[in-house]
Amino acid sequence: MPRRFGVHEQPNSWRAVPRWSESTAVQLCVSHARERLGDRAELRMHDAEKPLDFIDDASFDGVVCALLLHHIADRLRLLGELRRVLRPCGWLLVSTTHPTADWRKFDGSYYADDWVDLPLAGGPLAIHYQRMPLETFLNELLAAGFMLERLIEPRPTPDLRELDETAYNKLHQAPCFLAVRLLRP
């Protein structure tokens, strides 16, 4: 049976959380995942800035790194760990905010690689992350020893138009997310 590993957004990427602790948010996400998955998966909370020393070398067929990489300060270390736990010919799927979405949101230079805070829905919450151009994003993945298999700029589906035409039109004009599939040689 194939073994897969998921790495998701870390709690310290959330800022200004009144009455809502970072650990509470993460525990709630893990609780929902446990309800959905039952005993079909082992779930573990771990700081992605630290080594994955509880995972053996070459023990996974695939890793999903969803909307996490831009929150990590030492991305090359994490990518090295993900490469280490993947079997040869294993795959890594990484999603992130599209660099042009960040550029449009924060203005300035497309090539900026600064840390920013993105407010959520006008409320007190914000997501803290590092924006970067596509060149930086891809070169870090390649420098970690991965081979690019595919790059995807997801487009909105027609179903979204029925639910929220404004969101559909916005996402149809400018990309918001980016996903890449990489292989471990």
Keywords, please?
three-stranded antiparallel β-sheet, alpha/beta, five-stranded mixed β-sheet, single chain, 185 residues, 32% helix, 6 helices
Describe this structure in words.
Residues 10-22 have low confidence and may be disordered. This protein has helices at residues 22-37, 75-85, 99-106, 134-143, 158-163, 165-173, and strands at 4-7, 14-15, 60-66, 86-97, 115-119, 126-130, 147-152, 177-183. The longest helix has 16 residues, at 22-37. The strands form two sheets. The protein has a five-stranded mixed beta sheet with strand order 1-3-4-8-7. Strands 2-6-5 form a three-stranded antiparallel beta sheet, with no helix packed on it. With 185 residues, it is α/β, with parallel strands linked by helices. 17% of the residues are buried. The chain is built from six helices and eight strands.
Overall shape: it is globular
Q: Which percent range describes the beta-strand content? A: 25-35%
Major sheet description? 5 strands, mixed
Radius of gyration: 17 Å
The helix/strand class is: alpha/beta
Arrangement of strands in the largest sheet = 1-3-4-8-7
Q: State the helix count.
A: 6
